[in-house]
Specification:
Length: 199
């Protein structure tokens, strides 16, 4: 399972999210908001939204994309889920549904409503890993026309607070072959920074 939220203040936010009328259809089905945060966290991962498998299992990043993300970060499952130092705070805490070309995007306004309240309770946070275009554009205050490839190529411009990444989906294998600088330059620095913060 995604780690249980034990901090009372963050637990209260999770309860408020579940009680929000905008999330009533999920709560009625017994679906809880899927995220993890704790005052001890040093690293936060902001992705798009849980997929169908994550919603059904209650475990964030528990798929091949998650395996690859952990490899990119240089952490194992124990450190990822059980260290208490890695926050998982996607742009939407619920599976938004399926569209013609994959999962629907996270709902507009969701992150804007809930993320600031959660961030206030993580004073030790030093690095936010932005996975994919929605997270990168939101947190780096970039227009929707901003190219994710160019954002990731210029990742040093956003350090030390933010580290933008492409999505670790196996579908991005072709992108990685076209952009060998990502594995050669970006990933070693990501591993180094995460390793220091989790030590």
């Amino acid at each position: 399972m995604t780690p249980e939220i034990t901090n009372p203040a963050i637990r209260a936010i999770a309860d408020a999210i579940a009680a929000d009328p905008a999330n009533a259809s999920y709560t009625a089905r017994g679906v809880k908001p899927l995220f993890y945060a704790d005052p001890r966290c040093r690293v936060m991962i902001v992705g798009q939204a849980p997929g169908r498998v994550a919603e059904e299992s209650g475990i964030a990043w528990n798929d091949r994309s998650g395996d690859r993300l952990r490899d990119w970060m240089g952490v194992d499952r124990e450190a990822f889920y059980d260290s208490g130092k890695i926050a998982i705070v996607p742009m939407d805490f619920y599976f938004p549904g399926t569209g013609r070309s994959g999962d629907l995007p996270p709902r507009k306004g969701f992150a804007e409503k809930w993320h600031p309240r959660i961030l206030e309770l993580m004073p030790r946070l030093d690095l936010t890993i932005l996975v994919g275009a929605y997270a990168a554009r939101r947190y780096l205050h970039l227009p929707s026309s901003a190219s994710l490839t160019q954002i990731v190529r210029g990742y040093r411009d956003y350090l030390p607070a933010y580290f933008p990444l492409v999505h670790p989906s196996p579908r991005n294998q072709i992108w990685m072959k076209k952009n060998p600088w990502f594995a050669a330059d970006v990933l070693p620095e990501l591993k180094d920074r995460v390793g220091v913060l989790l030590a």
